[in-house]
Amino acid sequence: EAGVAQSPRYKIIEKRQSVAFWCNPISGHATLYWYQQILGQGPKLLIQFQNNGVVDDSQLPKDRFSAERLKGVDSTLKIQPAKLEDSAVYLCASSLAVSLSISYEQYFGPGTRLTVT
Amino acid sequence: SQQGEEDPQALSIQEGENATMNCSYKTSINNLQWYRQNSGRGLVHLILIRSNEREKHSGRLRVTLDTSKKSSSLLITASRAADTASYFCATDPASKAAGNKLTFGGGTRVLVKP
Fold first, then answer.
1. CA gap B92, B5 in Å, rounded
2. How far apart are CA A60 and CA B69, in angstroms?
3. A100 CB near a chain B CB, below 8 Å?
């Protein structure tokens, strides 16, 4: 079974530039998550999709971050414009969860390491 | 804000020894999950323990959960160099509005020396 795919693996941009990350979840996984992990910290949830609808985006800085999951499969996360503090690893995860009341493990992709200079 | 807090932040042991790390959290949970992260493989799920369970085993891993103290522990027995990684606890809150959302702690960095 293929895992969660993410691209690119690394990205270096200057502040105020834009960047986009792509995620392809495990086939059949209804729920998709984007996390931000700053060096030395645990992952922080940015946004959660169930199929192509947003379940939770309360921690997404909406003035500069946006995400979409068209057709309920692939997802993209965009930052525009980037700030120095956006330097982090952006992790995509998916799970089988079709019901919000039942807990499932999450499967993580390798992440995209973003450096903003 | 992070719901779970791991203790210790870092741990160094010799191969063959046991490693124990703890996680404390603040609000009621549906379940608590432990994940491992190393540079080679990213974040990997280790074990999920539900709020009505007290102990769970998986291979060399043993997880306990004490909901009255809002704490959990992860024990790795007979450690190997390959167990060198960061270990994170993640809580799935009991709120119906939360919906399968995990909040991760800051992690325990484990170094197993050969």
1. 14
2. 31
3. yes
| First CA to last CA distance, chain A | 37
Query: pLDDT per residue over A63-85, tens digit each?
Result: 999 999 988 899 999 999 999 99
A56 - beta bridge partners?
A48
User: In this structure, what are the phi and psi dihedrals at residue A84, rounded to the nearest 5 degrees?
Assistant: -55, -35
Give every strand in the sheet of B61-66, ordered side by side.
Answer: B5-7, B19-24, B71-76, B61-66, B55-58
CATH of the domain at B105: 2.60.40.10
The answer to whether A93 faces chain B, any CB pair under 8 Å, is: yes
Domains of chain A: 5-94 (2.60.40.10)
Q: In sequence order, what are the beta bridge partners of A48?
A: A33, A56
Q: Please write the tens of the pLDDT for every residue from A17-52.
A: 999 999 999 999 989 999 999 999 999 999 999 888
The domain total for chain B is: 1
Contact between chains at A103 and B48 (C-beta distance less than 8 A) = yes
Residues of B within 8 A of A92 (CB-CB) are none
Cβ-Cβ contacts under 8 Å, B33 against chain A: 105-106
| Distance of alpha carbon B56 from alpha carbon B24, whole angstroms | 17
Q: What is the pLDDT of residues B43-80, one digit of tens each?
A: 999 999 999 999 999 999 999 999 999 999 999 999 99
